[in-house]
Fold this protein.
Amino acid sequence: MQENVARRPRFKRVTISDPIRLTDRDKAILSAVRKYRLLTTSQILSLVPGSRQNIVRRLQLLYHAGFLDRPKTQLPLRYTGELFELAYAPTRKAATVTAAADGETASGKECKPISSLSVAHTLSVSEALISIETACKLSGIQFFDEQAILDSVSSKESTRRLQWRVTVKSGSESEEVGVIPDAVFAAERQGDSGAFRRFYYFLEVDRGTMPLTRKSLAQSSIHRKALAYSRSFKSGILKRRFGIPGFKVLFVVRSKDRLERMREVCRTVQGSGSSLFLFVIHDEMRTRAQEILRCMV
């Protein structure tokens, strides 16, 4: 049976004669993929205990049994060599199983198709969050994802995402813009006094496609994004709406040159002495996660 599974096509499901019996590990895999929306095999391995051979075998079975999807929108990244392994997304079948186990009702939001333009970005967001969460566990720091934050903070409105609108100004120009971070997380640690302190972060994964500046605030840019976060911080809108007293913005960028240019743009917005904006190179997230975490909390 194992040999037959190995020969099955990668992007076309085949009928499985024997119904799959979900194990605790299977459920952990489905839960992880549902949480992040898109994960590579290696990312799943970093979240779910087990040997690579056994995890890969279960991923194959879960795919052909209809619990996981292998979006074909990942193919362009495979052709260009940017993606060397399979990426998995949840199906409604997986969402129903994991939601029921958590006492929830599947919303279906996590099963929405991911466009080819969004695959690389989504995987980069997942990689950053996994690196930070893993570093928190190794350091004895409590990690909270966006849903946990929404469940714990005081809010007068019902929302599945932390998002808001704010008016930004530059010179004589002003514009109301929406702010939707790529991800939100918090890290909570115990201080020397024994009291717990929680640090909130908005994650922005930059792939180098957004212009640093533009002539008009009506168009998206790193400058406008920095203005929006700066204004949100100064106005206290997040404390009023979500009970979040303060935050920092973590930019994950592709290269040192891009990092320096983005840092300069943010410096013109917030000032040279501000620590509102933090920067890290994408390829260093995994290897320097604990060092980065120490700087954050």
Observations:
- The CA atoms of residues 72 and 178 lie 31 Å apart.
